[in-house]
Design brief:
single chain; 156 residues; three-stranded antiparallel sheet
Length: 156
């Protein structure tokens, strides 16, 4: 059983830009992982992870903590599996390959820490500290038993 807490947070510009930079690079890794899965005709997480870690893609994103790449491979595997199921159900897929429209950054337990007063998230430039407030929203943080998910934007 998952327990979910949804927090709205107020962040300053430096924190927002650090998280936005991670989100953009996460999107790149996710697209590369999906393209690798399509080219190798697999939706297996372990094969996608081996292809991304073993190839030059890891060197391209060497500043990004490795667990972001790990979770992007998990996300790509889920998207490819869902896309293949849609294709098998009588062509319910609208395109010939899955597209990445919405990105929610998945964080496993190595990338974030939570206490009642502060949330710490690892980024390319170190850790970002966020204190939960319940005023104007600059992003959503969803905490589940399996990890943390972050979606940025003014109206999340």
């Amino acid at each position: 059983m998952d327990r979910t807490v949804k927090l709205r947070v107020r962040v300053d510009y430096a924190t927002y830009s650090a998280l936005k930079e991670v989100e953009e690079e996460y999107r790149e890794v996710l697209e590369e992982a999906i393209n690798y899965g399509l080219s190798s005709k697999t939706a297996s997480f372990t094969r996608i992870k081996a292809g991304i870690y073993g190839g030059e893609e890891r060197e391209k994103h060497k500043d990004l903590p490795s667990h972001y790449i790990y979770t992007a491979c998990e996300d790509a595997s889920e998207r490819l599996d869902s896309f293949e199921k849609l294709k098998k159900r009588g062509g319910r897929a609208y395109t010939d390959k899955p597209s990445v429209r919405m990105v929610t950054v998945h964080l496993d337990d190595h990338l974030w820490k939570f206490s009642l007063s502060i949330i710490s998230i690892s980024t390319k430039k170190g850790k970002v500290l966020i204190s939960p407030t319940f005023l104007r929203s600059f992003g959503n943080i969803i905490i589940r038993a399996g990890g943390l998910r972050v979606r940025l934007g003014l109206n999340c």
